[in-house]
Amino acid sequence: MTDFFKGIAPVRFEGADSTTDLAFRHYNPDEVVMGKRMQDHLRFAVAYWHSFAWPGTDPFGGPTFERPWFGETMDLARLKADVAFELFDILQAPFFCFHDADIRPEGADFAENTRNLEAIVDYIGEKMQQSRTRLLWGTANLFSHRRYMAGAATNPDPDVFAFAAATVKTCMDATLKLGGENYVLWGGREGYETLLNTDLSREADQMARFLSMVIDYKHKIGFKGAILIEPKPQEPSKHQYDYDVATVYGFLRRYGLENEVKVNIEQGHAILAGHSFEHEIATAASLGIFGSIDMNRNDYQSGWDTDQFPNNVPEVALAYYEILKAGGFTTGGTNFDAKIRRQSIEPEDLILSHVGAMDICARGLKAAAAMLEDGTLERQRADRYAGWSAPAAQEMLQGGTLDAIAQRVLSEGINPKPRSGRQEALENLVNRFV
Q1: Catalytic pick from 26, 41, 50, 99?
Q2: Same domain, 398 and 425
Q3: Looking at the structure, do residues 45 and 150 belong to the same domain, yes or no?
Q4: Sequence-distant (≥ 6) Cβ neighbours of residue 178 within 8 angstroms
Q5: 296 is in which domain, residue-wise?
Q6: 294 known ligand binder
Q7: Alpha-carbon gap, residue 390 to 409, rounded angstroms
Q8: Residues 23 and 157 in one domain
């Protein structure tokens, strides 16, 4: 045991009327919602990077967090793991997620990186044997180091491509060894800043080849989890190739990979792409590529990916509504890709942020389940499209021609009148539940 969270007991469910700061008011892991335990619906995961690796910097200021594990040694990496698992236990978190660079010191070269990663993975594996917390997914950090300034898979230098591919191989090995349920590819710098030095076709082909090798290696090592791509627009590259769910799907279809890869959707990225979170989830479900989510929010006034913990029940409820409607998570879950504010410097702040977010998600899940069980929203949606059940409407979809349709419109005197979309009524309906 470390003394970082000294004196802080595991967080318990106390109910909506609790006045205890470190208590769950809405997240009751064992509460049954739509026939499943709440914990099994939500599948919460703690993000190793924001919780334990981020030092509290911003574009205009240096670190504000003083953590005893900050530094590039194996002893400090082990201390970081000790503290991480103490937080997991305090929160009773079922999962965590990591990048390789979050858990191991940066070495002088690939060989040292690999030795460091393998050693700390063994140490984390020992921690997991005494913990209820499992690995939701692993990934490689292919964006922070200066070698990746022009991308990883899309880099013009084949040596960078090779270094990135080798790194992903070691991270997939680590994810498999720790029993991870997914592997994520986050192309943080897979994009371009100017077309003056960019070959778009070449970079797309490189990215597809890289992804194909990942898929091949997944099958070679017997990894049964999902391969996930995380869409992200605009930042840090001006033009990201994985802009949103639809863009990712188009890329996958172009290279015949749509049956091998799903998406990990982040709320903050959805907003930056000009979408709502529920839109991106519904799009992924419709295309058959929904996998997992990163739950956070942006400051809507900043126009930047601020990675804040969720606090908006209506937004979260609509997201979980689409997830439940799609059948819920399989290998995926709710990862808090969120960080406390740089002025929140106390250890307790790290716990409070997760407690509040878990409660918000629980409230959203229960509201979403209540809406689905009520059925009014789905009945009104179905009623809006009811006309398409008529034989003539089906014929138009299944082989009608413009000539035949024009003749029917003339012969039947079809002259349709607009029908209300009833948006305000439906918004009022949602508000009854949230």
Answers
A1: 99
A2: yes
A3: yes
A4: 121, 124, 125, 128, 135, 138
A5: 12-374
A6: yes
A7: 15
A8: yes
My answer on whether 342 and 397 are in the same domain is no
Cβ distance 225 to 180 under 8 Å? yes
Count the neighbouring beta carbons within 10 Å of the beta carbon of residue 383. 11
Residue 30 known to be catalytic: no
Are 368 and 393 within one domain?
Answer: no
| Residue 5 falls inside a structural domain | no
Q: Report whether 40 belongs to an annotated binding site.
A: no
On whether the CB atoms of residues 143 and 189 are closer than 8 A, the answer is yes
Which residues have C-beta within 8 Å of that of residue 311, sequence separation ≥ 6?
297, 356, 357, 360
Q: Which positions ≥6 away from 35 have C-beta within 8 Å?
A: none
412 and 292 assigned to the same domain: no
Torsion sign across C-alpha atoms 160, 162, 167, 168: positive
pLDDT tens readout for residues 237-264: 889 999 999 999 999 999 999 999 999 9
Does the annotation count 244 as an active-site position? Answer: no
Options 102, 242, 244, 359, the catalytic residue? 102
In a domain, residue 1? The reply is: no
Q: How many residues does the chain have?
A: 434
Same domain assignment for residues 424 and 291: no
Does 239 appear as a known binding residue?
A: no
Q: pTM of this prediction?
A: 0.97
Query: Structural domain tally of the chain?
Result: 2
Using one digit for the tens of pLDDT, what is the confidence trace for 107-162? 999 999 999 999 999 999 999 999 999 999 999 999 999 999 999 999 999 999 99
* CATH number of the domain bearing residue 87: 3.20.20.150
